Amino acid sequence: MNKTILIVLLAAVVLSVPGAVVFAQPKETAATKIITAQYGFEKDQDIEGWKAQNGNLSFSDAHYKDGQRSLEWSWQTGAMLEIAGLKGLKEAGAVYPGGIPEVYEPSFYPKDRYGGMKIWLYQEKPSSGQIVFQVGSSVAAARMNPKYRFAVNLDFTGWRTVWVCFEEDARVKDYSGSDDMQAMVAFPQHMKKNKGRLFIDHLLLLSFVSNKRNSDLQFVNNKRNLRSADGYEILKPFRVYTNAVYNQQVNKQLLEKESDRIAARLEFLILGDRTDDWKRRGTGIEKELEGKIKGALSVYEQLQLKSTNGTVNGAPLFAIRDEHSAPEGRVFDNVAQDVLFPLAADYRLNGSAASKEKLIQVLDYFLDQGWASGSALGTVDHVIRLTPIATAVFLLRNELHALNKLKPEVDMLAWHTRLGSMLHIDHTRGENSDKVRGGALVKLIAILLMENDARKQEMLQCFKDYMDYVASVAPGYSDTFKPDFSIYHHRGTYLNVYGTNAVNTMALIHWLLSGTSYAMSAQSTANIKQALQRQAAIAFGVQIHYGAGGRFPLNNSAIDGDCLPAFAYMSMTKDTIADRNLAALFNYIYGIAPPAAINKMLLPALTYSGTFGTLDLMVRAHEQSKTNIQGPADGVVVLPYSGLMAYRYKKAFATVKGYNKYVWDYEAGKGENNLGRYLSHGMLIMAQGDERNGFDSLGMDMNDGFDWSMLPGATTKMLPADKMLYFPKADNKYIEGKHRNFSESVIASGLQQGGNGLFALDLRDDVFPDEDRSLFDSSFRAKKSYFFIGNEIICLGSGISNKDSRYNTVTTLFQYHVNEHRMNYFNGKVVDDPTNPEQKADGGYFTDQNGLQYIIPKGQHIVLQQAMQNSYRSVKGTYQPVSARYIKACIDHGCHPKDQGYEYEVVMNTDAAALHPYLEKKSYTVLEKNNDVHIIQHKASGITAYAIYKAHTSLKGVLLTTSAPLLAMAKEAADGMLLTIANPDIGQARWNHNMSHMPDSITNAWAKGSVVTITLKGAWYAANYTGKLMSAVIRNGNTVLSLFCRDGESIDLPLQHREESTEGED
Q1: Which of 324, 490, 681, 817 is catalytic?
Q2: Tens of pLDDT along 728-750?
Q3: Which CATH fold topology does 635-1053 show?
Q4: What is 3-226's CATH number?
Q5: Backbone dihedral angles phi then psi of residue 907, each to the nearest 5 degrees
Q6: Is-catalytic flag, 498?
Q7: Polysaccharide lyase family 8 C-terminal domain: from which residue to which, for each copy (predicted)?
Q8: Which residue among the candidates 498, 666, 816, 946 is catalytic per the annotation?
Q9: pLDDT at 1021 over 80
């Protein structure tokens, strides 16, 4: 199909003018709205008004980036290309009115000049000089008094593109003249030859040129760094790499031996060792790979590759974040993933010589299309899916070397992996998780493919240092590890996908390098192991809290498909168990994880974990461990940097999530987590029994009609589904939309004392409200606490307030998809009356379908509903209406609540017959429950626990007052007291209302500790040395303690009363 016709079909309404397709109507996508003109050179009239002095213009089908032909400009000395009345140029030079100009990572841009052009250029041979472009109000002005001027270096072959924002990248200093841009000229300069040829295609004039554009060897831009730091900057590290002097003395024999050992291990992980051990896992990966090979051959045919005179033409390829590709264009990354590794595997595993030849042709085609060293493709934003091409080159390394085709591929990998960044590691910031999970292995491959010389030796050492840096604790909000082994991405916790993929990559490389001169440090080893153990500890089976996985709440199986191989890698040296404890944990997960869950990591995509050899290792680790199986231990795990706590006791498990001024609430994307605004409003997920099926066994069925406004344990507004469904829309304040929001509170954290603990949340909705103040309501407040002691979870709420008189505010107890085979009970009677869809009660107790007991004291308005409800189901990035029958119970605080509260207890590991003692008499006493503090006293355990929301509050119990908001637990016994405190304020640098455009100074600032002063009733003395205890003073018969607190850590302080001495002093 003619591309102009296709654009018309896609664009809804377009206006044709001579020489261009001009988009005149706003009813388009964000990307098409900003196109002021597009030139594809498919029709002769496309170059009306174009004039070549000392040169010639013609159309050529030899090379093309759009349609089937390009514009060929043959020039000689003194050449000048003049374009008068260039349609769309005036609009490109005008003021952008403000708005959201992009589809990917949409942000709001205020009124300003952002316009410019994108242009693709092709050379068959590199040239030494430049092509200069000048823009003015007329041809004469463009020549003699241009407003904009920029030059493109011509030292390249194949396709290159240049993205130019006129005002930022090309404005002529001290320009004086008209702002009405009408003409452009171009001419060669500094050329050693007196003639040449340049092919031009896919020229776009735009009212907004993306801030995602990247400098490269062809053109260095001068963009404003709106995001404080460009995480995809690529030219600077490349220059560091190419300009470095590599002069270490080299023992080539040793270097070759070490390099070959690492390469052999990597090849083993990919191809296996020709045993059938991998088959015993039964993942079905062989069938998936077979299907991928068939798919690759099909896509190869679709590319319509043609080799002519050493050039491979085919479907035009574009960068993954180029929002203006040709209609028939494809994305480099997608083609690489679909084609390259499957063809390499077909050759290496099946001996297909045809696939080898096809693969070599595709690699040549990629280079010609611009996927080459020194080429930023306009933007390298999100060019992180590099393992498909890297592994293909690695598997074909010998064949490419024999054909003298390996070096361009190694140079390409060095460019795209930013190898130069390892020569001067900036330890003041963390490494982006995407660069770890998508780039670390590719860095290693690039180095392994180098010649055995000083550069390779130094780069291997740098790589070892880089991996130690990656596996260290990072400052502030930067990726990856935090002091509590939360894993960060997007300035917040990401305990699936990004985080777990990154840890898996660390473990993979740790295994590859172990025992070599480049092995990772002992500290890195310890950090990776601790991160893996922490991931297992916060999971029920393999699933984590729905709110801890960013915009992928339903992809919460974090330790099977995302990082199960890591447990094997870190348990083993070569293929022998070296860490029996970690191997026992691996064996536990191996036994409950669905075998096929790992398949998404066994074929190269954004991340990669090896294929057949990886399965061989896992099977061998499992068989060597045999009956050595050990799941996570009972107890409490607190992740202050995630606003998360997990609790495990016998057969029961619970996990709760909040947010505050340092931990954002939720992340949404285009068709991702658009119902998840309340996930961090204190959602308490409880389960008991077999962990094999994780939370899926509970019956919540969160993607099949679930009411996302009523999450268990959370305090929320009971909103209709249409109000819950929210797609972030950028505006002048919320530059990337209302998600990843912070509050003004510091409290969303927990405390651990032995096997018991507590979690507190000062819930504030500080997001500037939406128009009707439903989903975002800046009047919404609640204080929430959860006390975990033995089989009990005691839940308190106070200060529940908002000004919404339309929707009831509720604290939900549970919500399940109705299942006639699974009964729920209220006050001992089955809830199964379809004629009574809603019941109300003043207190009572529930036994839910999972055997959890909920006891709600009288004086609280309980609502029980069992009826059809409307919601949305997430299906491949869309939301489709769905209705289903659910049962849900809540404490109803009514409309426009003012200082409302709640109290209830959940009893676990206890059947209905054994519940009587809890119903007869509460096992705890609420000493205080108000806006300032929640205190409970648990008689049987001797525990008094405190969630203190306000400093200098007078308290009941053994604590009298504290100098800061604090969590505390005092366990008294006959011979003394164990006092545990945790300061929930982790001391991060404070940023804005949400994470958008967080500056480097905040992102990479280390959290600060603080001294907290506590006053205890009576005279107490430290019974053991505690390094965090700064001072202890007896004052007026009471004890004043000062403790240094940091990172939300729980501090145990054993205390005793001191008896008077009966012995005299010497």
Answers
A1: 490
A2: 998 888 999 999 999 999 999 99
A3: Beta-galactosidase; Chain A, domain 5 (2.70.98)
A4: 2.60.120.430
A5: -110, 125
A6: yes
A7: 925-985
A8: 498
A9: yes
